[in-house]
Amino acid sequence: MNSFSDIAGAYFIGIGGIGMSALARYFLYRGCIVAGYDRTKTSLTEELENEGCSISYYDNHDLIPALFINQTIKEKLIIVYTPAIPPENNIFRYFTSKGYRVYKRSEVLGEISRSTDTLAVAGTHGKTTVSTLLAHILKISDEGCSAFLGGISRNYNSNIILSHSRFTVMEADEYDRSFHRLSPLMAVITSADADHLDIYGDYNSMLEAYSEFCRKIRKNGKLLINESVTDKIAVPSGIETYTYGFSERAFFRICNTDRIDEFYVFDLLSKKAELKKLAFPFPGRMNCENAGAAASMAILCGVKDNIIREALRTFAGVKRRFDIIINRPGLTYIDDYAHHPEEIRAFIESVREHFGNRKITAIFQPHLYSRTRDHASGFAEILDRLDEVFLLPIYPAREKPIEGVTSQIIFERMKLKNKKLTDANQVLEEIDTRRLDILLTIGAGDIDKLVLPLEKKLKKMLAL
C-alpha cells in the first residue's frame, strides 16, 4: 500500500460504519494513530475505543484530536469519509478547507486492492455471506488471507482478518459506484437485482456499472458469476469466466441438495473438482447457492477439497445474516439484514423451508425513501407471505424525506389482514400481547437496536 506507507494517523468521518470500522482496524494494525467521528455511539464504536481509537460523537471540529489539527504534519495524515456523510458536515468541511488528504472509503480500499491479490465479491445480495465464508475457507487453508468484510464474522468476532497472505477478500460495494475503485485479481458476482436506482437512475445503468466492474478485473484474472445474471452483464475478453448455479449448464453445479439433521447437504460438481455431500449449517436454496459460490472461488484459488469441506461445516455465520438469536421448542427468533424485496423473499423462503408451516411474525423496517418508493409493491407482495407483520417507519440513512413516501405506501399495498403500522417503542409492547412462534426482525437500518431488548423479553417469556 505504497500511497499510505508513511502516514502517522488516520481520521475516519463515519467511523462506526461496518466498512469504515474495518479500515480503522486495519490502520491500527499498521501502528497508526486512529481517531474519528460518528453521530451515534454503538457497541461497534465502543469496541473501537477499547482497541485504541479516539472517537467523538459531536459534529464539532473543536473536538478533533490535536494530532489531526497540526497542519505542519498534515502530509503524514489521511482523512477517510463514507459517502453517507453529507457535504455540510462540519468536520468534513474543516478538513477539506484546510487542504488535508481526504479520501472516500472506496479509494482507500482501491489502493489496498492494487497491492495484493484481491478477491472481490459483488452483488445486490449475498456478498457479505459469500465474502465471509470465502475468508473463512482461506483462513484455515495453507493460503491464508486478509479480509475486509461487510458484517461481523461469528467465527472471528470481527469484520476484518489481517495476515501476510497474498490474498485479500473484499466486498465490492455497488453503491455510489464504489466497486469501480477496485482492481481485483478475481471477482464474484452473486446477483444483480434492481437497487440503488437513486444513484443509477435506471436498471440498465446499474447493469452497465456491473459490466464496468468486470473491466476492472486484472488482465488474465478470473470472474465467477451466478448463472442467473450472465445474460445481463458484459464480460470483457481476457478474463477467465466461470458460472455457478443449480442448472446443468453451470460450470460449478450445485445439486443433490438434502437436509440431514441440522445440516444442509449438497454436491458441487465441476471439471476442476467434485465435492460431494458438502455439509452447511444454514438452511435454504439461497444459502446453498452462497456456499457454492464461496467454495467455487476457493477451488479457483487452489484450496484443497478437505479444507473446503471442513470450512463449510464449521462456518458460524455472520451477525444479522440469518442470525438465529433464540431457537427453543415453541419459540424461535431470527434477525436478518435483508432490505431488498429479493433478499427478503429468499430469507422468508429459507425460514419456511427449515421450520415448516409454523406461524411467522415479522418486524420490518424499510431502508431508504428511494428504495421504498421504487419497490413498495415488491415489499408488499413478499410481506404478504408472512402470518403477521409489524411495519416500522422508514430508516432514512443518507437520504432526506421524499414527499408522499412513507411505510404507509407498503402497508396500503399489502393484502395481509394481520398487519400493523407501529414504531420501535410500541412494537416491544405489542410483542407482549402476541402468542409468538417464530419472530423475525428484518431490515438494514437501526432495527438492530431492537435485537437485544427483544432477546431479553423473549427469554423472560420462556422462563415464565
Q: How widely separated are the two ends?
A: 57 Å
Radius of gyration: 22 Å
Name given to the CATH homologous superfamily of the largest domain: Mur-like, catalytic domain
- Helical content class: 25-40%
Quaternary structure state of the chains depicted? single chain
Structural class per helix/strand content? alpha/beta
How much strand? Answer: 15-25%
Structure description:
This protein has 464 residues and is an alpha/beta fold. It has three domains: 2-104, NAD(P)-binding Rossmann-like Domain (Rossmann fold, 3-Layer(aba) Sandwich); 116-314, UDP-N-acetylmuramoyl-L-alanine:D-glutamate ligase, CATH 3.40.1190; 323-463, Protein-Tyrosine Phosphatase, Chain A (Alpha-Beta Complex). The chain has helices spanning 18-29, 43-50, 90-97, 105-115, 127-139, 197-200, 203-215, 284-300, 305-314, 341-355, 369-383, 408-413, 424-432, 451-463; strands spanning 9-13, 33-37, 54-56, 77-81, 102-104, 117-122, 146-153, 158-161, 167-172, 186-189, 222-226, 240-245, 252-260, 263-269, 274-280, 323-328, 331-336, 360-364, 388-391, 419-421, 438-442. The strands form three sheets. It has a ten-stranded mixed beta sheet, sandwiched between helices. It has a six-stranded mixed beta sheet with strand order 16-17-21-18-19-20, with helices on one face. Strand 19, helix 12 and strand 20 (419-421) form a beta-alpha-beta unit. Helix 5 crosses helix 8 (284-300), helix 8 packs across helix 10 and helix 10 (341-355) packs parallel to helix 11 (369-383). It is globular and about 65 Å long. The protein starts with 8 loop residues before the first strand and ends with a helix.
